[in-house]
Specification:
Length: 405
């Protein structure tokens, strides 16, 4: 490549990528911070327990993880829910390993597949996939993939008994629930943006008629991811009983801390954009795409690439961003040009980014150390669980690709 084109690729790759998704990542992280610190996540967890039943604790914790990890980072979600998980496990008189793995897999499923979590948001932005469709299909495939993951936890992991030792008593948890907002209020910041983004995708499927209709044009505006998440962010400010500037909105408060978390992700995402643009402008990606296209790997290619990168370096977010950056210049050569095809490629990358969580993944240590699982058992129980979860998600993505594409 000419030297000037390298500089141009770096600048445009970083700027174009963050121009699409930088603010979305920031807003998603802020919503997650308010969900976590206000106790709203506890309220949602309690509601799921009432619906599923306290005698089905593994299933309940898996569903709770599935919901909470849509806006909240998986690591934070596990730390937040661990006291509740231990208390319920103790009451149910079952192994902590079972519920810890079920919770970990539930958190992982939506963390890697469902926006506004930063990883899938970045992948969708890089590949120009419709965010509403990614949310819709991501939620469906994450739920389906959780079924074999939950079976693995209840049938295999349950054979390894670990005594639950709650850090918080049920009385303390009940007190926190009293101070937390009600379920409907707690769910609004999460589900309002998701609903608006999905609704935009549905109304815009009507085509050119959308521009002529004022109502549909308005829905398209508020369903734009940045606007939808901005609305969700304003709703998240209503979660605390009283808005305290110093504790919540200052640089050292909830928002300040969440922006520090977002900074690393934004820089990694921008770096991924640079990587993809250099590959694209160098011409090497086209050659690789044509070569791999002849191997007939179909939707499995992005899965295998993401799984290799995840296993090698540990971060699901980095795996999602790096793989989507590699895939972008190849999409045309591989035939992934339709809207649904792009969406299923994002889902396949997300599935690969689950596989294989082990010692180089911070979440592996959160799950094992918070649950008293030793390293050898962690590989056998949780790491194997992430492989089953990711492979199941990829299999469902491939099935839908065969049916609908």
């Amino acid at each position: 490549m000419p030297l000037k084109e390298i500089i141009s690729s770096i600048n445009s790759g970083f700027g174009d990528t963050l121009g699409k998704i930088g603010l979305i990542i920031v807003l998603g992280v802020i919503i997650g911070a308010f969900m976590e610190n206000s106790g709203a996540a506890y309220t949602m967890a309690e509601k799921v327990l009432k619906i599923v039943g306290r005698n089905r604790v593994p299933a309940a914790m898996s569903i709770i993880g599935y919901i909470v990890s849509i806006p909240v980072f998986a690591d934070s979600g596990f730390l937040l829910l661990s006291p509740l998980n231990k208390s319920l496990t103790k009451t149910a008189k079952i192994s902590l390993a079972t519920t810890a793995v079920a919770l970990g897999l539930g958190l992982t499923a939506t963390h890697t597949l469902v926006p506004p979590t930063p990883g899938p948001v970045a992948a969708a932005g890089i590949l120009n996939a419709d965010l509403g469709l990614v949310i819709l299909w991501g939620m469906i495939i994450a739920a389906l993939a959780l079924i074999p993951g939950l079976l693995f936890a209840t049938k295999y992991v349950s054979k390894t008994y670990i005594e639950p030792s709650p850090e918080l008593s049920q009385e303390v948890i009940n007190q926190r629930l009293k101070e937390a907002p009600r379920f409907l209020k707690s769910s609004v910041p999460i589900f309002t943006p998701i609903f608006l983004i999905v609704l935009k995708s549905i109304v815009e499927s009507f085509g050119k008629q959308a521009d002529a209709n004022v109502i549909i044009a308005f829905i398209s505006f508020i369903g734009e991811p940045v606007i939808a998440l901005l609305i969700g962010t304003f709703f998240s400010f209503t979660l605390p009983s009283k808005l305290n500037f110093d504790r919540m909105l200052s640089t050292s408060g909830w928002i300040g801390s969440s922006l520090k978390d977002a900074a690393n992700i934004i820089l990694i995402t921008g770096a991924g954009g640079i990587f993809g643009k250099v590959l694209q402008n160098s011409g090497i990606a086209g050659v690789i795409g044509e070569t791999l296209g002849s191997m007939n790997l179909s939707i499995w290619l992005p899965f295998l690439l993401a799984a290799a990168i995840k296993t090698a370096q540990g971060s699901s977010t980095v795996s999602l961003i790096t793989t989507s950056s590699i895939m972008l210049p190849m999409m045309g050569a591989l035939g992934f040009t339709g809207e649904l095809e792009k969406v299923l490629v994002v889902i396949s990358i997300g599935a690969g980014s689950m596989v294989f969580s082990h010692a180089n993944d911070s979440f592996f240590w959160v799950v094992t150390q918070m649950s008293g699982i030793d390293i050898k058992s962690g590989y056998r129980l949780y790491s194997l669980g992430t492989f089953i979860l990711g492979a199941s998600a990829a299999a469902f993505a491939f099935l839908f690709y065969q049916i609908f594409v």
